[in-house]
Amino acid sequence: ALPGEDVEMTPEIFGGMSNGEKECLEKLRSNGTPMERVKSNTGDSILHIAAKWGHLELVKEIIFECPCLLFEQNSSRQTPLHVATHGGHTKVVEALVASVTSALASLSTEESEGLNPHVLKDEDGNTALYYAIEGRYLEMATCLVNADKDAPFLGNNKGISSLYEAVDAGNKFEDLVKAIL
């Protein structure tokens, strides 16, 4: 968790982030509001909101200014990577994966293991990869498997792994299953 107190996200900022309006970032800057501390009532950061709605350029700008938000979890323990994946936003997921990979490379092995969003599970025990496969987003799932070779083997709260989900998805995911194995 980031130090300091959270700042409640106003409806104006929430709406602006949902609509991909970069002007909202300027409003936060001019007000002196710490962007990394702005949270919705469900604990979503501004990066969660931009990623959820697939606003690639806004996501990139937020990451540039507040890379620490890559690792923030909301009240459902989902990272921005989870919500982008669940929403089916492949280009946003690719940008998040690239940013996470770069950020993790600068950390020690011990630090990176505890922060790695590729293997972090939400309250249901699902990883971002699980959501990609469940949504049948093959390109996105391939990106996530290439980012972390351990993620496919992690089971959720029901004991279902991403690998199992990929096998269950059928022929469309046959090459992904082979790549995992």
Q: What do you see in this structure?
A:
- This protein is mainly α.
- The chain has 11 helices and 2 strands.
- It has helices spanning 11-19, 23-31, 46-52, 56-65, 80-86, 90-105, 109-115, 128-134, 138-147, 162-169, 174-180; strands at residues 7-8, 38-39.
- It has a two-stranded parallel sheet.
- Helix 3 packs antiparallel against helix 4, helix 3 packs parallel to helix 5 and helix 4 packs parallel to helix 6.
- It is elongated.
- It starts with 6 loop residues before the first strand and ends with a helix.
Strand and helix map with partners:
Blueprint (H helix, E strand, L loop, with lengths): L6 E2 L2 H9 L3 H9 L6 E2 L6 H7 L3 H10 L14 H7 L3 H16 L3 H7 L12 H7 L3 H10 L14 H8 L4 H7 L1
Parallel strand pairs: 1-2
Helix pairs in contact: 1-2, 1-3, 3-4, 3-5, 4-6, 5-6, 5-8, 6-9, 8-9, 8-10, 10-11
